[in-house]
Design brief:
Blueprint (H helix, E strand, L loop, with lengths): L6 E8 L8 H12 L7 E3 L5 E3 L3 H7 L6 E5 L8 E7 L8 E9 L2 H18 L3 E6 H8 L4 E2 L2 E3 L26 E4 L1 H7 L8 H5 L1 E3 L5 E4 L10 H13 L10
Antiparallel strand pairs: 1-6, 1-7, 2-3, 4-5, 5-6, 7-10, 8-9, 10-12, 11-12
Length: 250
């Protein structure tokens, strides 16, 4: 079986679901279109046995487990894809959020489709921001906000310490960076992207979405923080966007 090092972590943050909200189905259908051959037609039991979902769309549309939608997966032990969503009760400004979480394998098919995958999930969710990052790099990035026994975070690799999400001044401001970054129009404006004079390199690996947001790729290959060039690219991006992680001066 693949290890977690072989997987992407995809997360987007959006306003909470309301009423008969069509966003969960839009997310599911969008991901299936974006990844060739993907069918999210199963879920898992408490014992992690696969359960086929013949009426998958009806189930997703009607089941608001935890304020989101229940876990879906494909039927491929060697290239597992999972997708789920829930409402988090606490976010920036004490505002609940709808979070969508997906896990995808790091393989040629997914890497080639990755910008489109993040875009359709984020746009389908009406997300404010999100990212798609290999698990290994995501672990180091998570330590930028993780408190230590001594108090404040002690990030690895010389990365900057970031504020906890509760202390971010607005919900559209990203908590951290990833390999691929989705910034809604509001998020991009909040962090000052794009600046044609300063963002030439990032714009060369970015694309605008239909809603005016951006998908921005930090490095050509999936982020590997053991690669000095990748680590430097991440540090430069943090230096460029001090609003991310709540580091800007008040």
């Amino acid at each position: 079986m693949p290890t977690t090092q072989d997987y992407f972590n995809l997360v987007v943050y959006a306003p909470v679901l309301v009423g008969h909200d069509g966003r969960p189905l839009a997310i599911v259908h969008g991901m299936e279109r974006a990844v060739p051959g993907l069918r999210l037609g199963w879920t898992t039991s408490g014992k992690e046995d696969l359960i086929a979902l013949p009426d998958r769309d009806e189930w997703v549309a009607s089941d608001r487990t935890d304020g989101g939608f229940p876990l879906l997966c494909n039927d491929d032990d060697h290239h597992v894809v999972t997708l789920t969503g829930w409402e988090s009760l606490a976010g920036p400004c004490d505002e609940p959020q709808f979070e969508v979480h997906a896990r995808l394998p790091v393989n040629a098919t997914v890497v080639a489709a990755s910008m489109g995958v993040l875009e359709v999930v984020a746009e389908g969710a009406h997300a404010r921001w999100g990212h798609m990052t290999p698990f290994g790099a995501a672990g180091d990035i998570a330590e930028q906000t993780a408190p230590t026994l001594a108090g404040p975070p002690s990030p690895p690799r010389g990365l900057p310490a970031l504020k906890l999400f509760q202390h971010i001044r607005a919900p559209e401001i990203p908590y951290y960076l990833g390999w691929l970054n989705y910034w809604s129009d509001a998020a991009a404006r909040a962090i000052g992207f794009p600046d044609p004079a300063r963002d030439t390199e990032l714009l060369s690996r970015a694309r605008r979405t239909a809603t005016g947001g951006w998908v921005v790729q930090l490095t050509d290959a999936p982020l590997d923080l053991d690669n000095p060039a990748h680590l430097d690219a991440l540090k430069r991006a943090y230096a460029r966007f001090p609003e991310i992680g709540g580091r800007a001066a008040p």
